[in-house]
Specification:
This protein is an alpha+beta fold and about 90 residues long. Helix content is about 20%, strand content about 35%. The protein has one domain. The chain is built from two helices and five strands. Strands 1-2-3-4-5 form a five-stranded antiparallel beta sheet. A hairpin with a 4-residue loop joins strand 2 and strand 3. The protein is globular.
Amino acid sequence: MSAKAICEQMLDRLQSEDDYLGIIGSDDSTLQILPEPDNQRYYVEVPIDAAKASYGCYVDRAELEALVRSLPQSFDEKTIPGLTYRPW
């Protein structure tokens, strides 16, 4: 699915805190997008199972669309700016 299609077809489906969108990178890394509708923001994270942690940040809708449109082929704390470490 293209970045344009994700923005046009998938992001509007993130309506409640129970919704999420997972995007798989070329190296099987995962980018998760979790909405926080009450705060009008999204939490974007790259989970690292081996570390029992994730790297993430909060973004608004415009920032989320810009991120999706410019996604790298694989996801980690180095390829997506602004992510911070968060243990589980």
